[in-house]
Specification:
Length: 122
Protein backbone atom coordinates (compact mmCIF):
# COMPACT_ATOMS: atom_id res chain seq x y z
CA UNK A 1 0.00 0.00 0.00
CA UNK A 2 1.19 3.50 -0.75
CA UNK A 3 1.74 6.07 1.97
CA UNK A 4 -1.14 8.10 0.49
CA UNK A 5 -3.46 5.10 0.77
CA UNK A 6 -2.38 4.51 4.37
CA UNK A 7 -2.80 8.20 5.20
CA UNK A 8 -6.32 8.22 3.77
CA UNK A 9 -7.24 5.21 5.93
CA UNK A 10 -5.95 7.07 9.00
CA UNK A 11 -8.00 10.14 8.08
CA UNK A 12 -11.09 7.98 7.70
CA UNK A 13 -10.56 6.37 11.10
CA UNK A 14 -9.96 9.71 12.82
CA UNK A 15 -13.44 10.85 11.81
CA UNK A 16 -14.82 8.34 14.31
CA UNK A 17 -15.39 10.03 17.70
CA UNK A 18 -14.06 7.14 19.80
CA UNK A 19 -10.73 6.94 17.95
CA UNK A 20 -7.92 8.99 19.47
CA UNK A 21 -4.98 7.91 17.28
CA UNK A 22 -4.55 5.93 14.07
CA UNK A 23 -1.24 5.10 12.45
CA UNK A 24 0.62 2.56 10.38
CA UNK A 25 3.95 1.17 11.60
CA UNK A 26 6.67 -0.55 9.65
CA UNK A 27 8.07 -3.84 10.94
CA UNK A 28 10.70 -1.97 12.97
CA UNK A 29 8.06 0.02 14.86
CA UNK A 30 8.59 3.28 12.97
CA UNK A 31 5.51 5.39 12.34
CA UNK A 32 4.97 5.58 8.56
CA UNK A 33 1.85 7.75 8.69
CA UNK A 34 -0.62 8.61 11.40
CA UNK A 35 -1.73 11.18 13.90
CA UNK A 36 -4.07 12.02 16.72
CA UNK A 37 -7.60 13.22 16.14
CA UNK A 38 -7.91 16.99 16.44
CA UNK A 39 -8.23 18.23 20.03
CA UNK A 40 -6.89 14.98 21.53
CA UNK A 41 -4.12 15.42 24.06
CA UNK A 42 -1.52 12.62 23.81
CA UNK A 43 -1.05 10.67 27.05
CA UNK A 44 2.57 9.87 26.21
CA UNK A 45 5.39 11.94 24.77
CA UNK A 46 6.94 11.11 21.40
CA UNK A 47 9.76 9.00 22.88
CA UNK A 48 7.32 6.92 24.94
CA UNK A 49 5.06 6.45 21.91
CA UNK A 50 8.03 5.22 19.89
CA UNK A 51 8.75 2.58 22.56
CA UNK A 52 5.09 1.58 22.59
CA UNK A 53 5.12 1.19 18.78
CA UNK A 54 8.26 -0.99 18.88
CA UNK A 55 6.72 -3.17 21.59
CA UNK A 56 3.48 -3.52 19.59
CA UNK A 57 5.37 -4.70 16.50
CA UNK A 58 7.47 -7.12 18.56
CA UNK A 59 4.29 -8.65 20.02
CA UNK A 60 2.80 -9.02 16.53
CA UNK A 61 5.95 -10.67 15.21
CA UNK A 62 6.12 -13.02 18.21
CA UNK A 63 2.49 -14.06 17.75
CA UNK A 64 3.18 -14.87 14.10
CA UNK A 65 5.36 -17.76 15.29
CA UNK A 66 2.11 -19.56 16.21
CA UNK A 67 0.20 -18.88 12.98
CA UNK A 68 0.82 -22.35 11.53
CA UNK A 69 -1.05 -24.24 14.23
CA UNK A 70 -3.29 -21.57 15.81
CA UNK A 71 -4.12 -19.53 12.73
CA UNK A 72 -3.25 -15.90 12.05
CA UNK A 73 -4.20 -13.08 14.41
CA UNK A 74 -6.95 -10.78 13.13
CA UNK A 75 -6.24 -8.17 15.78
CA UNK A 76 -5.03 -7.76 19.33
CA UNK A 77 -6.44 -5.34 21.89
CA UNK A 78 -5.35 -4.13 25.30
CA UNK A 79 -7.77 -2.38 27.62
CA UNK A 80 -6.04 0.06 29.94
CA UNK A 81 -7.46 2.51 32.43
CA UNK A 82 -7.31 5.50 30.07
CA UNK A 83 -7.37 3.97 26.57
CA UNK A 84 -7.80 0.80 24.54
CA UNK A 85 -5.11 -0.01 21.99
CA UNK A 86 -5.58 -2.18 18.93
CA UNK A 87 -3.02 -3.69 16.58
CA UNK A 88 -3.89 -5.20 13.22
CA UNK A 89 -1.13 -7.12 11.41
CA UNK A 90 -1.23 -6.51 7.67
CA UNK A 91 1.20 -7.70 4.99
CA UNK A 92 4.20 -5.50 5.73
CA UNK A 93 2.75 -2.95 8.14
CA UNK A 94 0.85 -2.84 11.41
CA UNK A 95 -2.18 -0.66 11.96
CA UNK A 96 -2.03 0.79 15.48
CA UNK A 97 -5.17 2.46 16.86
CA UNK A 98 -5.96 3.90 20.26
CA UNK A 99 -9.50 4.66 21.37
CA UNK A 100 -11.37 5.98 24.35
CA UNK A 101 -11.41 3.51 27.24
CA UNK A 102 -15.15 2.83 27.24
CA UNK A 103 -15.41 1.13 23.83
CA UNK A 104 -16.75 -2.35 23.14
CA UNK A 105 -13.54 -4.04 21.97
CA UNK A 106 -14.96 -6.49 19.43
CA UNK A 107 -17.47 -4.01 18.00
CA UNK A 108 -14.77 -1.35 17.63
CA UNK A 109 -12.26 -3.80 16.11
CA UNK A 110 -14.75 -4.93 13.47
CA UNK A 111 -15.66 -1.29 12.75
CA UNK A 112 -11.96 -0.47 12.21
CA UNK A 113 -11.54 -3.54 9.99
CA UNK A 114 -14.58 -2.57 7.96
CA UNK A 115 -13.47 1.06 7.53
CA UNK A 116 -9.99 -0.04 6.42
CA UNK A 117 -11.13 -3.04 4.35
CA UNK A 118 -9.14 -5.46 6.49
CA UNK A 119 -10.02 -9.10 5.99
CA UNK A 120 -11.00 -11.00 9.14
CA UNK A 121 -8.65 -13.97 9.65
CA UNK A 122 -10.99 -15.85 11.98
Amino acid sequence: MSDDSLASKCELLLKEPEIRFAGFLDMMGNLIVGSFRDNVKPLKNEEERKKMFIEAVLRIRTRQDFDNNLGPVSYAAARRKNIVTFTFPLDDVVLFVSTESNVDIDKTAYKIMDLCSIKNNS
